[in-house]
Design goal:
The structure holds 3 protein chains of 3 kinds. By secondary structure, chain B is mainly α. Chain B contains 6 helices and no strands. In chain B, helix 1 runs antiparallel to helix 2, helix 2 runs antiparallel to helix 3 and helix 2 packs parallel to helix 4. By secondary structure, chain C is α+β, with helices and mostly antiparallel strands. Chain C has a domain of about 80 residues: mini-chromosome maintenance (MCM) complex, domain 2 (Sandwich), CATH 2.60.320. Chain C is built from 2 helices and 8 strands, in the order αβββββαβββ. In chain C, strands 2-1-7-6 form a 4-stranded antiparallel sheet, with no helix packed on it. A 3-stranded antiparallel sheet of chain C has the order 3-4-5. In chain C, strand 3 and strand 4 form a beta hairpin. The longest helix of chain C is centred in the first third of the chain and has 19 residues. Chain C is extended. The chains are: A alpha+beta, B mainly alpha, C alpha+beta. The interface between B and C is large, with 35 and 36 residues.
Chain lengths: ~325, ~180, ~120
C-alpha cells in the first residue's frame, strides 16, 4: 500500500515534465552557471547549452590539458607556431584586437602574472618587486601573432579567461536562436545574457551586485537581447598583512589594478565584447574609460567607483533604476 | 479468489444489479452537479457516485466490479462532461478503484477501503491537472483535496455499508 | 456472511493521524509571498510583484481568457470566460505556495517568494 502511495505521489510530481520553461544549474569554467530557456524546446536547449559550454572549456581553458591554449602554453620552441582550431584562432584574434583597442588594458599574455599571484592555484602570494619587474617584461600581447590557425606566441603564455564566459554566452544564444527560441536567460558565473524579451514580452530586469553587500544590488538595468557583464575586485581576492589584493591585474604593472574602480558593468549585444571591456575599463579607471566610451559609443556602461560614485551612459536612461539613496551621474 | 459475499451469483442477478447500480450512478452524478462546487478546491467533486463503485466491489467478482467502474466513468463522462472532466474522472476512478481493490485484498475493513478510494480519487484528479497545467501550482491544493477525499470516502463508506447491509438482508430472505 | 466491522481500531488511528497531518499542512502559517507567477499550459508567462497593482489580460488555452489583478498586496482573477468560474470565485491569494487554477484555460497563478523582487538575474 505504501509503495503504491509513493509511486502515485511520484507520478503527480513528475508528470509535469511537458512544455514550458526549464532551468538548470551547472558548474563549468570554474564557476556556477544558471541557464533558463523558454518554449517547447527548452529541455533540448539546456542540454545543448551544457554541451557547448563543456566543449568551449575543453577547447580554450589554459588550465585544461588537451585544450588549444594548453598546447600553446606548453610550446617549448619559442620560434615555432602552435596550430589551433579555427575557432580558437578567431577568438584569439578578437582578443588581440581588443587589446590593441584598449591600449593594452586587456592583455591575453597576462598568464604568468596571474600565476605568480596564485590566482590559478589558490596559493595566494604577493610577488616581490623584482618578480613584478620580470613579469612586466613577459606580458606583452603585441608580440603574439596569428597566421591563419597558427599561433606564434613567442614564449608568451596565453589566457582567454577574460573573454571565455562572454564567448560561451554568445555561442549559447546563437545556438538557441538557431533552434527557434525567442526567450532565454543566462547567468554564467555573473556574466548575464538575455535572449529576446521575457516570455510575456516585457524587458528583462538585471541587477548589478553591490560590491559591499553580497545580497544587495546597486541598481537594475532593463532591456532585451543584451549582455550585462560586471567586473569587480570583490569577485576574487585575498588579504595579506591587512591589504586586499584582487584578481583584476593591470597588465602594465602586473599587480591588481588600482584605478579607483569598484565595479564596472558593460551592457551590449555581445557577451564577448562586454566581458573583455568590463575588465579593460576596470583597469583603465573612470576617466580613461569615459574617454574610451566617447570614442566608441557602441555599448553602455555603469561605472561604480570606490568613492561610491555611480556613472552611467546616456543609453541607459529610462532603463536604469538606482537603489534607494544612491545618486547616479551621466557620463558626459 | 473471487468469492462474492452475497448470493448475487447468477449472471442474471448480476446483470440486474449492475443495471440498478448504473442507474444510481446517473442519478448521483446528476445530483452532484446540482450541488455548488467547492470554491476552495478547483473542480473537486463530492464523489457521491463512488458509492456505486464501492458497492460493486463488494457485490461482484473483480472483473465485474472493474467493468462497472469503467461503465460508470464512461456513462457519466459522456452524459455530463467534456474531455477534461472525462480525463479527471478516468484517472480518479482508475486510481481509486486500484487502491480500493488492494486495500480490500489485504483485508482492510470497508470504511478504510472507502476512505482510501476517496483519497486516491482526488490524487488521480490532481495528477491529471498537473499534467495538463504543467505547473506546481496544483500542489497547493493537495491537502485540501485529500481532506475532501477522506470526508467523501467516509460518507460514501457509511452509506455503502448501509446499502450493502440491506441488500444482504434482501438476498437472505429470497433463496 | 460474517459480521464485518466498518473500521478497525488501528485503521482509525492511521486515518486519524493522516487527517491531522493534512489539517496541519493546510493550516500551517505560510510566509507572505512577494510575487505572482503566471503560467499557461506549463509555460511561464510572467511574474508580477504583489506590491505593484496591475491588471494583466491573459489568454488561456481553448479560447478562454481571464484578467490577473494585483491589488492590496494580493492577486485574484476577474472577467474569466471559462465555464466553471472557479478561478474567479477563489479568494485573493498572497501567501507563499497558494495558487489559483483555471483548469479549462490551463492557467495557474502561484505565489512565490519575492526576495530579488523584479530582478531576473544579478550581474557580478
Amino acid at each position: 500500500m505504501r509503495k503504491l502511495w509513493c509511486l502515485l505521489l511520484g507520478l503527480v510530481l513528475l508528470s509535469g515534465c511537458a512544455a514550458g520553461s526549464r532551468t538548470t544549474t551547472i558548474f563549468a569554467m570554474d564557476t556556477v552557471m544558471d541557464l533558463t530557456a523558454y518554449g517547447p524546446k527548452a529541455q533540448d536547449a539546456l542540454e545543448l547549452a551544457q554541451d557547448e559550454v563543456d566543449r568551449i572549456e575543453a577547447l580554450i581553458s589554459a588550465q585544461r590539458p588537451g585544450s588549444d591554449l594548453y598546447a600553446v602554453n606548453a610550446q617549448s620552441d619559442v620560434t615555432a607556431p602552435t596550430v589551433v582550431a579555427q575557432e580558437t584562432a578567431d577568438l584569439l584574434a578578437r582578443a588581440l584586437a581588443l587589446g590593441e583597442d584598449t591600449a593594452g588594458a586587456l592583455d591575453v599574455t597576462i598568464y604568468p602574472a596571474v600565476e605568480a599571484w596564485g590566482f590559478y592555484s589558490g596559493d595566494y602570494q604577493v610577488p616581490d618587486a623584482q618578480t613584478l619587474e620580470a613579469l612586466k617584461a613577459r606580458v606583452d600581447f603585441r608580440q603574439v601573432t596569428l597566421d591563419g590557425t597558427q599561433v606564434f606566441a613567442q614564449g608568451h603564455k596565453l589566457d582567454l579567461g577574460a573573454v571565455g564566459k562572454g564567448y560561451a554566452a554568445d555561442r549559447i544564444v546563437a545556438l538557441w536562436q538557431g533552434m527557434g527560441l525567442t526567450s532565454g536567460l543566462l547567468n554564467l558565473g555573473g556574466n548575464v545574457q538575455c535572449l529576446g524579451a521575457k516570455p510575456d514580452g516585457s524587458d528583462w530586469v538585471i541587477g548589478i551586485r553591490d560590491p559591499a553587500d553580497e545580497g544587495g544590488t546597486l541598481c537594475t538595468v532593463s532591456g532585451t537581447d543584451m549582455a550585462v557583464v560586471t567586473s569587480g575586485g570583490y569577485q576574487r581576492n585575498f588579504t595579506q598583512d591587512g591589504v586586499t589584493y584582487h584578481h583584476i591585474l593591470d597588465p602594465h604593472t602586473c599587480a591588481p589594478a588600482d584605478s579607483g574602480a569598484a565595479s564596472v558593468t558593460v551592457i551590449g549585444p555581445s557577451g564577448l565584447t562586454c566581458d573583455a571591456l568590463s575588465t579593460a575599463l576596470f583597469v583603465m579607471g573612470p576617466d580613461r574609460a569615459a574617454e574610451y566610451w566617447r570614442q566608441h559609443r557602441d555599448f553602455d556602461l555603469v561605472y561604480y567607483t570606490q568613492e561610491g560614485e555611480l556613472w552611467y551612459t546616456a543609453g541607459l536612461e529610462g532603463r536604469l533604476t538606482l537603489r534607494d539613496g544612491l545618486e547616479g551621474q551621466m557620463i558626459p | 479468489m473471487d468469492k462474492t459475499p452475497f448470493p448475487a451469483d447468477t449472471p442474471a442477478r448480476r446483470v440486474a444489479l449492475l443495471g440498478m447500480l448504473l442507474a444510481l450512478t446517473v442519478a448521483l452524478s446528476w445530483l452532484e452537479r446540482l450541488l455548488p462546487t467547492d470554491v476552495v478546491v478547483p473542480g473537486a467533486k463530492l464523489g457521491l457516485a463512488n458509492l456505486v463503485v464501492l458497492c460493486g466491489l463488494y457485490l461482484f467478482p473483480l472483473p465485474w466490479a472493474a467493468g462497472l467502474t469503467g461503465l460508470k466513468i464512461a456513462v457519466t463522462g459522456l452524459l455530463f462532461g467534456n474531455f477534461y472532466s472525462l480525463a479527471y474522472s478516468a484517472a480518479g476512478g482508475a486510481l481509486s478503484f486500484l487502491a480500493m481493490v488492494l486495500c480490500k485484498r489485504r483485508g482492510r475493513s470497508m470504511g478504510f477501503v472507502s476512505v482510501m478510494g476517496g483519497i486516491f480519487h482526488n490524487i488521480g484528479q490532481l495528477c491529471v491537472a498537473r499534467v495538463i497545467l504543467g505547473s506546481m501550482g496544483v500542489l497547493a491544493h493537495l491537502p485540501a483535496m485529500l481532506l475532501a477525499g477522506v470526508g467523501a470516502g467516509a460518507a460514501v463508506g457509511a452509506v455503502g455499508a448501509l446499502i450493502l447491509g440491506r441488500l444482504e438482508g434482501f438476498f437472505r430472505k429470497r433463496p | 456472511m460474517k459480521e464485518r466491522k466498518f473500521l478497525t481500531a488501528p485503521e482509525a488511528i492511521a486515518l486519524g493521524a493522516l487527517v491531522l497531518a493534512l489539517i496541519l499542512w493546510l493550516c500551517w502559517p505560510k510566509g507572505t509571498g512577494g510575487q505572482a507567477v503566471l503560467t499557461r499550459s506549463g509555460e511561464e508567462l510572467g511574474r508580477y510583484a504583489l506590491d505593484t497593482p496591475c491588471r494583466v489580460p491573459v489568454r488561456g488555452a481553448a479560447g478562454f481568457s481571464l484578467v490577473l489583478v494585483v491589488e492590496d498586496g494580493a492577486v485574484h482573477v476577474e472577467d474569466s470566460t471559462c465555464p466553471d468560474l472557479i478561478c474567479q470565485h477563489h479568494r485573493p491569494i498572497s501567501k507563499m505556495g497558494e495558487a489559483i487554477i483555471c483548469l479549462p484555460g490551463q492557467v495557474t497563478i502561484t505565489v512565490e517568494g519575492g526576495e530579488r523582487l523584479g530582478q531576473d538575474a544579478v550581474s557580478g
